[in-house]
Design goal:
By secondary structure, the chain is an alpha+beta fold. It has 11 helices and 18 strands. Helices cover 32% and strands 26% of the residues. The chain is globular, with a radius of gyration of 29 Å.
Length: 347
């Protein structure tokens, strides 16, 4: 009898008290109903929450990763429009087809990337961006450096891949040295070529601006005793060495960064338009001083990266300009952008 009464009570309780699933269902119905009532209101239009002005601003552009015991930060100096079909040297039909296949047109928005290497003992900046020399869409390196947690005064050394305006213009800011405590290092061949008054006088009119940009950017460091030249392949600090890649300019240089078995090769201007030049390394650009040498430098850099699998960084590959290279046929290659990481990357 007692068991029967308990069983009956249990059944009545089950009928009277909602289960968890029914309670959830009721809550959902109530929420939807309330939402409908809010929408209906008294017939008056409600505020649209997304009705806000567009921000129309850029976030700080830096990308941080670790390489062994080193920290490397990619710093954007901005972008500008490159007239690719006019400047690239190759079969026009193939160039146009490659651009179209990669959803690009005759004008390609081109990144300007610099690389900050913190070895734990030295803070080294590789290339300094354009500064004020290429107009308002560049010259953002200093603000991105600060956003990444560093100050210009902390930079110990600056290694230049070459002395074109978009790599040296950022050395100056407001008529003063932007990095007052830094030693600037560059291959002797580039310094001798671009800092020569005689070479500038002999250059065609349209090329004189390259010499002027180098002189106005480098001379203040030279006068302060802070310009140091090297010759070809050179160890600079522990874990960073210069590697000759002549052709784009007489002393164009790549920089190899290594720590605890991880390797990053910073290419400078080995590549200007990734959508075209990986597929066809023979494509050069009108800015190349020695076309044959520049083409050879492409082939050597691509083959080395594909064979050894190390990370590469390009000054003009879409920000942050980091990735790997794989073969894509006998003479063609493909660029594989780095998979996004919040900070830890192995080579």
């Amino acid at each position: 009898m007692m068991l029967d009464r308990l069983f009956d009570r249990s059944k009545r309780s089950a009928r009277q008290e909602p289960t968890i699933s029914s309670a959830i269902d009721l809550s959902r119905r109530s929420f939807l109903a309330a939402g409908c009532l809010c929408c209906l209101g008294a017939g008056a239009p409600t505020a649209v929450l997304a009705d806000a002005p567009m921000a129309k601003g850029d976030a700080p552009a830096f990308y941080r990763l670790t390489l062994g015991d080193f920290e490397v930060v990619v710093l954007s100096d901005g972008t500008n429009m490159l007239p690719a079909t006019k400047l690239l040297k190759g079969d026009p039909a193939r160039l146009e087809e490659a651009l179209k296949r990669n959803y690009l047109g005759a004008l390609v928005e081109t990144s300007h990337n610099s690389f900050l290497v913190n070895s734990g003992r030295k803070l080294v900046l590789i290339d300094a961006g354009a500064g004020s020399l290429l107009g308002p869409s560049t010259g953002r390196l200093l603000s991105n450096l600060r956003a990444a947690g560093y100050q210009p005064e902390q930079v110990d050394e600056i290694y230049l891949t070459h002395l074109h305006a978009d790599h040296v213009g950022g050395l100056m800011a407001g008529g003063k040295r932007a990095f007052p405590n830094a030693i600037v290092r560059v291959d002797r061949r580039d310094a001798d070529f671009w800092l020569s008054e005689a070479n500038m006088r002999a250059a065609p009119t349209e090329a004189k601006r390259f010499f002027q940009a180098a002189m106005v950017s480098i001379t203040p460091y030279m006068q302060a005793g802070r310009l140091v030249v090297f010759d070809g392949d050179t160890d600079l600090i522990a874990g960073v060495r210069a590697q000759a890649a002549y052709g784009h300019t007489p002393g164009h240089t790549m920089y190899v960064v290594e720590s605890r078995g991880e390797k990053l090769v910073l290419w400078g201007d080995v590549v200007h338009v990734a959508a075209v030049q990986f597929e066809d390394p023979s494509v050069t650009i009108g800015y190349d001083v020695d076309v044959g040498e520049a083409q050879h430098a492409h082939e050597l850099a691509f083959a080395d990266a594909a064979e050894n699998g190390h990370l590469v960084g390009g000054a003009h590959i879409s920000f942050p300009g980091l990735g790997h290279v794989r073969r894509n046929g006998e003479k063609a290659y493909a660029y594989v952008p780095l998979n996004y990481s919040q900070g830890k990357v192995g080579g």
